[in-house]
Design brief:
- It is a single chain.
- With 248 residues, the chain is mostly helical.
- It has one domain.
- 80% of the residues lie in helices and 0% in strands.
- It contains eleven helices and no strands.
- α1 packs antiparallel against α2, α3 packs across α10 and α5 runs antiparallel to α11.
- It starts with a helix and ends with a helix.
- 49% of the residues are buried.
Length: 248
């Protein structure tokens, strides 16, 4: 096994584990790490194709643990905008080359972590957020575009849900259901555009057994651990990975 192949498998396995941890543990809080990590070892377009079946599997395993633990109103508010965002994202993704995709993914990562650090530094603790229907449509649109181009919409949905102060389980369950619907909708279009191919699907199948391991870890973390220090480490890793992709 060459060093390049070994590095691909290390990054692929790590990405598959993080899919489970992100979905079942923190409702996508770790999700932004997945695509940059995978895109370091695979061409960005291949990384998107490899990850989508793994994300679908992560959704299925996570829904089992969080069945009916979701806020139906938020799901209904986010999905119409998400559908429109997927259509926009599919248009954009056909016009971006591999280098452009890597830069977009890196830019999303760096921008999100910068916003998180700024918010923490300011110590802002706003009152509970009571969204309106059109707020959900706008966040759904942004989520649809970002998840189609970079599988990186977890932070977008989180920014909509976190201020509502849902319980941990309902926050995660709502996020899981939203992305389960989005990822199933994306699947046929990714095959149609050649992002998912027979070759990428084979690689997905090799990595799929690792996903439930990550889901188990995520469920355990959600129930037993405070995510504060864990997320601080993840922020550093995501920021460094984003810079690598942005300027590589």
């Amino acid at each position: 096994m060459t060093s390049d192949v070994f590095w691909q498998w290390v990054c692929g396995i790590a990405g598959a584990i993080f899919i489970g941890v992100a979905k079942a543990g923190f409702g996508g809080g770790l999700g932004l790490l997945i695509t940059p990590l995978t895109a370091l070892a695979f061409p960005a377009r291949d990384a998107l194709g490899i990850l989508l079946p793994l994300l679908v599997a992560g959704d299925a395993f996570s829904l089992y643990h969080y069945w009916r633990k979701w806020d139906s109103r938020n799901v209904l508010w986010l999905m119409p905008g998400a559908l429109a965002g997927i259509a926009v994202g599919l248009t954009l993704i056909g016009k971006l080359d591999d280098h452009g995709l890597r830069q977009f993914i890196g830019g999303v990562a760096v921008a999100f972590i910068g916003i998180q650090w700024l918010r923490d530094a300011l110590g802002a603790h706003p009152e509970r957020y009571h969204p309106k229907h059109w707020h959900g449509a706008l966040f759904g649109l942004a989520a649809g575009v970002t998840t189609t181009i970079a599988h990186a919409a977890g932070p977008v949905v989180a920014m909509f849900l976190i201020p509502q102060r849902l319980s941990k389980e309902f926050f995660v369950g709502t996020t899981v259901l939203v992305f389960a619907l989005i990822n199933w909708i994306k699947m046929p279009f990714f095959f149609w555009q050649g992002i998912c191919t027979l070759e990428t699907f084979k690689q997905s199948l090799w990595l799929m057994p690792v996903v439930p391991v990550g889901v188990w870890i995520g469920v355990w973390c959600n129930r037993k651990l405070s995510p504060t220090w864990f997320m601080r480490v993840v922020y550093v890793v995501v920021f460094a990975t984003g810079l690598e992709l942005l300027f590589h």
